[in-house]
Amino acid sequence: MQEDWQLRHHTAEESRELVGQLVDVYLDAHADDGPLYNADRYRQQLAAHMPRPGWELVTAMADGELVGYIYGFPLAADTRWWDGIQEPVAAGFTEENGRRTFAISELLVCRAWQRRGIARALHDELVKSRSEERATLLVRPDNTVARHAYASWGWGDVARLRPRWKDAPTYLVLTRPIGR
């Protein structure tokens, strides 16, 4: 129930003290997803993402414990987010200016806290605070639970993308409008 947990926004600076907890939730949520989902790689990801202008984190806390979070950042004009896109997309789709697209990088809830509406609440809280035209995220094609949730929240499939980092899987690219 909603009264069991609270949501809070954090800047990158405020989030630095939470990195260990962010990693713990990541590992819990991805416990069955294979070796790609490891602490060292995720710490590197956070270190690369947190300094980006406009980076924002929303956490869900229950009794002082981090049980879930969502974070993202606006895509800069020189973004590499779209590198590896595999399907033709509309002309201009990948053009960014730092105000057009907000990229959601992670939406995670500890397994013991799933199916309580936390992911939806985190999602809605972050998206409603953004002023960009649209949001994007990547989801594994085999993650049917997440795909169904995103579809019910207004997200649509656009293309497939395989990031250019070592051992990267292929993801579905989802987008949805968010502008105020």
TrEMBL record:
It holds the Pfam family Acetyltransf_1. This is Acetyltransferase (GNAT) family protein. One of its GO terms (molecular function) is acyltransferase activity, transferring groups other than amino-acyl groups. Residues 13-177 form the N-acetyltransferase domain. InterPro entries: Acyl_CoA_acyltransferase (IPR016181), GNAT_dom (IPR000182). Keywords: Transferase. SUPFAM superfamilies: Acyl-CoA N-acyltransferases (Nat).
